[in-house]
Amino acid sequence: MIRVMIADDDPGMRMVVRKILQRAEGFELIGEAADGTELMRLAEACRPQVVFLDVEMPGKTGVECARLLQDMDPSMILIFATAHDQYMSEAFEVYAFDYLVKPFRIDRVLQTLSRVRERLTQTAASSEPVPRVSRQGQGRILLRHRDGVSFVDMNDLLLVQREDRSTVLYTENGGRYVTTDSLAETEARLDPSVFFRCHKSYIINLNRITTITPYGRWTYVVQLRGTSQDALITHEKYEELMSMFGA
Question: Quick one: pLDDT at residue 132?
Fold first, then answer.
């Protein structure tokens, strides 16, 4: 079951979304919040996969919550459901999966949930693989953490991402390293001809890209060979990447 949380200060709207979720197959409502502060507390405890959130809420706005949720888990799917369409650009700046303007039709929400299900079960059609880059990272990178330092071979490094407010590196053979360094500090020590900052929360190894598929508006999902983890890439970075490959 896909774990869903709703955040809206209007109890009537929470009921509407709750009823729609009951009609959709494969979704489980794990919590409701009436304000942004409560949402963050529940999200920290329950770790939802999908969050429906209003923009204008007491405590913290939906956009503020979205930024915090992404630093907690950048793969969390954020769906804005609001009566205020003027916040749409801000919502997509924080990589919202969709933006529903109240009052919305039930079938419109069900379509969004169907796309969410495809995304999380990885059944969406893939695009053509991106060619391998004939470049190789060199040397090793030193990672600082609470217990000391670790060394990781750059040739084994697949993905760097923000996760649980830390920077996490994924390597071949299931390696996972958590560092206290920021994403920007880590990026500065990587070979820019091999490692590409595709999103504010992700750095990817260009040699390991296999497919890129759509994710919401103006954002795509990058699959990487050698790991079950994937990454998001913004539309601007997608265009930059395509130009690098002459596409």
Answer: 42
